[in-house]
Amino acid sequence: MTDSTILEVQDLKTYFFTRRGAVKAVDGIDFSLKKGECLCLVGESGCGKSVTVLSLLRLVAAPGRIVSGQVHYNNVDLVHCSEEKLRGIRGGDIAMIFQDAQSAFNPVLTIGDQIAEQMTIHGSIDRQAVKNKGIELLKEMNIPEPDRVWDSFPHQLSGGMKQRAMIAMSLSCDPKILIADEPTTAVDVTIKAQILDILHTLKEKRGMSLIFVTHDLGIVADIGDRAQVIYGGKSIEMASVSEIINNPGHPYTKGLIACLPDSSTDSERLASIPGTAPNPIDLPEGCPFHPRCAQVMDICRHVVPKQTIISETHTVNCHLFG
Amino acid sequence: MNNSRSAESRPVRIHGNRRLFLYYWNRTKQNKLAIAGLGFILFLILLALIGPFFTADPTHVDFAERNVPPLGFSTEESIYDIKTNAFTVNLIEGTWKHPLGTDGKGRDMLAMLISGARISLEVGLLATLIAICIGALIGVLSAYLGGWWDNVLMRFTDIMMTFPFFLLLVLIIFMFGPSLTLIVLVIGLTGWTGAARLIRSEALSLRTREFITAARALGASDARIVIRHLIPNVASLIIVMATLSIPGVILAESALSFIGLGDPSQTSWGIILNDGQKSLDTAWWVAVEPGIMLFFTVLAFNFLGDGLRDAFDPRSNLDAR
Amino acid sequence: MRKSWLQGYILKRLLYAVIIAWGIVTITFILIRIGPNSPADKYLANIAARGQDVAQVTAAIESRYGLDKPIIVQYGDYLMHLAQGDLGWSFSTSMPVIDLIGKHWIYSFQLIFLSSLLAAIIGILLGMYSAVKQYSKIDYIISTFSFAGISIPNFWLGVMLILLFSVKLGWFKVFYDTTLPLLSLENLKALVLPVFTLGTGMVAGYVRYTRSAMLDNLRKAFVTTARAKGLPERTVIGKHVFRNAMLPLVTIIMFDLGSIVFGGAYLTEIIFGIPGLGQISFNAVFANDYPVVIAITLIGTFLALLVNLITDIAYTYFDPRIRYE
Ligand SMILES: Nc1ncnc2c1ncn2[C@@H]1O[C@H](COP(=O)(O)OP(=O)(O)OP(=O)(O)O)[C@@H](O)[C@H]1O
Ligand SMILES: [Mg+2]
Predict the structure, then answer these.
(1) Which residue of A has its CA nearest to B2?
(2) Correct CATH for C98-318 of 1.10.1410.40, 1.10.3720.10, 1.10.760.10, 2.30.130.10
(3) Are the beta carbons of B250 and B297 closer than 8 angstroms?
(4) Local structure of B14: helix, strand or coil
(5) Does a structural domain hold residue A245?
(6) What is residue A270's predicted lDDT score, i.e. its pLDDT?
(7) Cα-based torsion angle of the residue sequence B65, B70, B73, B79 in order, rounded to the nearest 10 degrees
(8) Separation of A49 CA from ligand 2 center, angstroms?
(9) Interface of C with B in 95-114 (CB under 8 A)
(10) Does A17 contact B321 at a Cβ distance shorter than 8 Å?
C-alpha cells in the first residue's frame, strides 16, 4: 500500500447462497483507490458492480455473504473488523449514494430527520447546528428552498431533488471516500449533468476520493481518473481512463469501446458484443469471457488469466498478454 | 436462477398451458408442508367418500357400549347399584370394534368422525364455491360497469365486510332455524367480499394490459374477454383465496354446531364436540377426537394455501434457503 | 395545509360510516321481517308456555312495536328508536336491552382488551424476531407454532384447556363469579384460561402479519441506506423497518377485531361462562329473546365500523404518503 492509496481491495468474493447453488456475484475483484481520485467501476448489467460496492461496507444482506477477500482502509480490514468499528466508518469516513433515490429514502421520515440522524449517530449533538449544516449542504447541492425541503417527506420531492438530497446526506459527516452506485441512471439529462458537476466539484474542492459505478463509458470519460472493468464478477482490466478508451487491452473492453456511439460518423448504430452475459450461478471455467471472445485460445477455456502489467498504469487479466 | 426470472416476467396465463401448470406445480412441490397438506386433504376426501361403507352407522345408539375409550386406553365407570346401595367400579377397555371409542350413547366415534369429515368438506367447498362465484360476478361487474355502479357495489361490499361475520351467522340461524343448507348459503352469501375486491382490482388493472387491448382490437366482446382472458388470469389468485378461505368456513360451521346452533340432523364435528364438552370427566375422547380432526383439516388447507400463494407469487423468492 | 384536507376527509369518512350504519340497520330490519316467525310469535310461545293471557299480551306487544302499522312506518319507528339508543325490551330478563348491555359489556371488554393487548405485544415481538432471523431455526419454530395457532379451533382449545387444567389437574376454577369485584384475584385467575384461549389465535395471526410486513420492508432499499449511514442494527430494525411495517399492521389488527376477535370472544365467553355480551346473546338465542340477539349483533357491527373508521383516519394522519384531496 503506497502513501497515496486510501482503500485497497484484494481478491473480494461475495456469493449468494440459494437453493439452486451459489450465485457468484463477485468472484475475485482487486483494485486500489488513491487519495483524491475518481475510480470508475465499469461493466454490463449484472456483472456484480453493485454487489462489489455493497461488499466494501459489508452491506450485502442474506443469503449473500462475503466468502473471501480483504478491504483495507486506514489499517483496518473492513471485511473482518468488528461491527462497531465498521459502523463508525459507514456513513462517517466512507459514505454511499444509491442508484434509486426514490426508494433509498425512508418514506415515513422527513428528509431533515434522515440527514440529522446520520450526523447524530456520528457524534453531532447540537440539534440547531445539525440543522444549519444540513440546510447548508442542501443549498450547496443547488436545491431550491432548502428549508422547506428539510421538512419535506421524500414523496414530496422530485427524483432529481431526492438524488441531490441523498448526496447532501452522504456528505453530512465529511467522508473521505464517497461511493456512488449509478447515481445518474434514474434522472433526466439535465439533472444528470448537474449531479456529475456537483460530484466533480466535490472531488476537486474537498479532495475526496470517489468510487463511481456506471455502465456508461461517456460518464467515465467525463469524470473518471482511472477505470476498473468488471466481467462476470472478476476484475479484467484496470487503467487510466484515457488508456482504457484509446488503448483497451482486453477483448471485452475493446468490445465495450466499440459499442460507444461513433461521434465522428454521427451514426446512431451501436455495435454490440455477441453472446449473453454469463450466468453467475454457473460461471464458465477459465476466463469468464471466453465463450464470447473472438480471440479465444485453448488455455482460456481452462485457466483463469492472472493479472498482467502492461504499463505502470495499466493491468489486464487476459491470456493474450500472458 | 435465470430461468425463473424470465418465467416470472411473463404475464400469467393459465388456460391451455400445460407448461405453466407444470411450472407452478414444481414451485408448489418445493414446499413440503403444502404437499403434506394436499395429501391430508385427499386422504380426508377419500375417507368421506368410501369410509361410510366400512364403518357402522354413525347414528346407531347402543347404550350397552357407551363410553368405550379408544383402543389402548381404559376408563373406570362407577355404576350405582340400587340393591346394594353402593357404587361398583367397572373398568372399560378400548376394543377393536370401536377403535376410536364410543360416546355417551354408544355411537361409534370413527363412524361419526367420518360423517363429520363429509359435512365439513361439503360445507367448506360449497360455501366457498358460492362465495367465489358471487365475488367474481360482483367484482367483474364493478370493474366493467364502472362509475356509479362501481361505487354502489363497492359500498355494498364494505357493508358486508363490516358485519362481524360470526354474529351475523348467529343472528340468521336464530331467525330462520338451524339447517346445514342455510349455514352453507349464509356463509356463501356473506363470504364473497374479499373475492369481489380482489377480482375487481385485478380486472381494473387487466383492462389496460396489452393482450386485452389486442383482443378487443380483434373484435372480442366484453363477455368473451371476461371469460377467455380475465377469469384465467385471476385463476391463480382465486385458487389461493379459495384454499385459504375454506378453513374459515369449516371453523364457522363447527363453531355454530358447537354452541348448539348446528343442524341437529347431521353428525358434524362441532356437534360431536358439543356433546363431548359435557362429558369431559367421563369420556374425554369425545371432545378430543373431533377437535384433532378439525385442527388437522384446517392446518392442511392453510399449508396448501400458503404453498400455493408462494408458488403463484412471482415476487416470492423460492431460491433462498 | 395538512389540517384542511384531513378535516374534509374525516367528514367524508363520517358521512360514509353513517350510510353504512344505515345500510346495516336496514338489512337487519329486513331480516326480521322476512324471518319465518313474526317477532311476537316467538315471544308469545314463551308466554303461552307460562300460562299467561296470550291475546292481551299480543295486543300490548303489537302496539309497543307498532306491528299493526304499515311496514314503512314500522321501519321509520325502528330507525327512530335506534337513533335514540332504544334497543328494545329483553323479554327473558325483563329489562331494557340497553340496561342489560350496560351491565354486561364490561366483561366482554375486559376479556377482549386483555387478550388483544397481550396478543399484540407478544405477536409483534415474536414476528419481528422471526423476520430478522429469517430462515433460522427459531424462525422455523415460530412460524410452525403460528401456523398451528391460526389453525387450532379456539373453542376446542378452550375445551382442551378445561379438560387439562380444570378436570384433570384442578388448577384453575372455570367459572367466573359476578358477585366478586371485576378485578378481584379470583376473577383474574378465572380469566387466565379464557385469555389464553382467545389470545392464541390472535398471537399467531399477529406473528404472521408482523413477520411478512417486516420482511416486505427489510428488503427495501432504504434499509441498506440506513445501514450505510452507520446506524446500529437496533435502530435500523426498530425505527426504520418497524415504522414502515407498523402502518399496514395496525390496519390489519384493527380489521381483525370485528371479523375474528368478536366471534372468538363470543365462543370463549360461552365456554368459560364469562357473563359478557356473547354469553348474553347466547342465552337470548335459547330464550327466543330476539331484541337482545339483534341488539348485540348491531352493537358488534357498529363497534367494528367505528374501529375501522378510527383506524382509517389515524392511518391517513400518520402515513405521510397518503393524501386525499
Ligand atoms: N439477493 C440476491 N440473491 C441472488 N442473487 C443476487 C442477489 N443480488 C444480486 N444477485 C446476483 O448478483 C449478480 C450481480 O448483481 P449486481 O446487482 O451487482 O449487478 P450490477 O452490475 O450492479 O448490475 P446493474 O448494472 O444492473 O445494476 C446478478 O447476477 C444478480 O442476479
Ligand atoms: Mg447495480
Answers:
(1) A279
(2) 1.10.3720.10
(3) yes
(4) coil
(5) yes
(6) 47
(7) -20
(8) 6
(9) none
(10) yes
User: Is the distance from CB of A96 to CB of A57 less than 8 angstroms?
Assistant: yes
Phi, psi of C321 (to 5 degrees): -75, -25
Q: How many CA atoms lie within 13 A of A100 on its CB side?
A: 10
* Strand ranges inside C29-175, DSSP E: 89-90, 95-96
Question: In the prediction, which pLDDT does C187 show?
Answer: 78
DSSP state of A303: S
- Residue B8, pLDDT > 50, answer no
pLDDT per position as a tens digit, A255-264: 888 776 655 5
From C255, which residue of chain B is nearest by alpha-carbon distance?
Answer: B162
In a domain, A22, yes or no: yes
CB-based contact A261:A267 (threshold 8 Å): yes
Which chains share 3+ C-beta pairs under 8 angstroms with A? B, C
- The minimum-distance atom of ligand 1 relative to the CA of A230 is 21
Please choose, from the candidates C241, C228, C239, the residue with its C-alpha nearest in 3D space to the C-alpha of residue A173: C228
CB under 6 Å to ligand 1: residues? A 16, 18, 23, 25, 43, 45-51, 64, 215, 280
Average pLDDT, chain C: 83
The total domain count for chain B is: 2
Ligand 2 centroid to residue A183 C-alpha, Å: 10
Domain range list for chain C: 2-93, 98-318
Cell of A157: 420531492
Q: Give the alpha-carbon dihedral of C262, C268, C269, C272, to 10 degrees.
A: -170
What residues in A contact C229, CB-CB < 8 Å?
90-91, 117-118, 121, 169
Domain that holds residue B92: 69-98
What is the number of the ligand closest to the CA of A98?
2
Beta pairing, strands A5-18 & A64-73: antiparallel
Residue A291 domain boundaries: 5-87+214-262+270-321
Q: Which of A63, A279, A281 sits opposite B320 (nearest CB)?
A: A63
* A137 occurs within a structural domain: no
pLDDT higher than threshold 50 for residue B239: yes
Which phi and psi (to 5°) does residue A182 adopt?
45, 60
Rg of chain C over all Cα atoms, to the nearest angstrom: 24
C240 part of contact set with chain A, CB < 8 Å: yes
Give the strand order in the sheet containing A314-317. A94-97, A177-181, A209-214, A38-42, A226-231, A234-240, A314-317, A307-311
Cβ-based contacts of B1 with chain A (< 8 Å): 18, 20, 23, 279-281
Nearest of B267, B315, B251, B306 to residue B30 by alpha carbon: B306
Which residues pair with residue B88 across a beta bridge?
B79
Determine the 3-state secondary structure of B268 from DSSP. coil
Summarised one tens digit per residue, pLDDT across range C261-318 is 888 999 999 999 899 999 999 998 888 887 888 889 888 888 888 888 888 887 777 7
